[in-house]
């Protein structure tokens, strides 16, 4: 009988820091049109760097047409315009719309380097051959509403006036949580009907708005439509935070999946194939049907919805894990970023199994052959907050890794991603000779 340790030893492909580390992954991609690249934390340098290197190869060798990431649509759109040479931003200023906590999640050196590469790749290419960079998330309620109005002001001033009035009930000092609270408890007018009507109008009038031929005009119309979709879904999301039985996790991941679907269709309407690389946390991209989320909480996620919506043969789900090292994370929500030690992985966890069984850093194909890894084990998830003092409760959940992902990259000891804005609490520490054992 093959044990989990035997499976890892027999199938792990060691990483040596070269581009060839990703040859096996690209073989697994084959003709798939969706590659979902996860991360076990939002603050690990290797995860960002490796996803960027894999994405470069997917673009160059497999014809992938866009990167879509766990970021707000309008923030990422500014990077998209920079990378496509459509504005006067510098590489540094193109990140300036990322003002919401956690700043370091996208304002970091690894993403900076990737966006710089993407601009160089796109330079000189026809618009239909350029690769875009887009956001998946749902949080930009007010900024997306402002973007819709700004678009309409340049193309239909009367409709812009209607949009400004329709979105007026969102105005709670730019605080979407306050809007959600007041709307849910009847303290202010609900904006749902206005938001839905404005999206419907934008879609209905799209043919008339597309008076100019060309990719740029069609893109700008689509970008405005997507911002209007964000307003509809974000309005529902923030109201659901208060007094509703709707699971906001599900609302958020449904929005993310819909965004993937809309972008795929937009690319196909432009003559493309709709081939996307997705960057988000493992908890979003690993199939929730095979985790505590699905077993006990009634939650689903992007990985599960993508498999069901587009077919498992179209999507490759790739997880990233680590045993120990450092991470950029905050102690509390909206707190400053810190350079924090990651505790060695817990006994009985996937990460400890990979640490004990594997040859350092490696790539591990999963799928049907990985039956020994189907048994549920603990798995660690570090988001923007890391609390090692309560790690078992705060950061571990049960999962069947062999069914959750199609493959994993394991980096045994990792570094913290370097933020643009470090602050006084982000200070790299020297690793003691006795770390991580402390004796």
How would you portray this structure in words?
- The chain has 439 residues and is an alpha/beta fold.
- The protein has 18 helices and eleven strands.
- Strand 6 and strand 7 (338-342) form a beta hairpin.
- The longest helix has 26 residues, at 215-240.
- The protein is globular and about 70 Å long.
Layout of helices and strands, plus pairs?
Blueprint lengths: L3 H8 L1 E2 L8 H7 L4 E4 L7 H18 L3 E7 H11 L25 H14 L9 E6 L3 H13 L3 H10 L9 H9 L7 H13 L1 H4 L5 H26 L7 H22 L6 E4 L2 H4 L6 H5 L5 H9 L4 E15 L8 E5 L7 H8 L4 E4 L11 E4 L10 H5 E4 L1 H4 L2 E8 L25
In short:
The protein has 439 residues and is of the alpha/beta class. The chain is built from 18 helices and 11 strands.
| SS-derived structural category | alpha/beta
Compute the gyration radius: what is it?
22 Å
- Termini separation comes to 37 Å
Helix-strand sequence: HEHEHEHHEHHHHHHHEHHHEEHEEHEHE
Main sheet overview? 9 strands, mixed
Which key phrases capture this entry?
disordered C terminus; alpha/beta; nine-stranded mixed beta sheet; globular; two-stranded antiparallel sheet
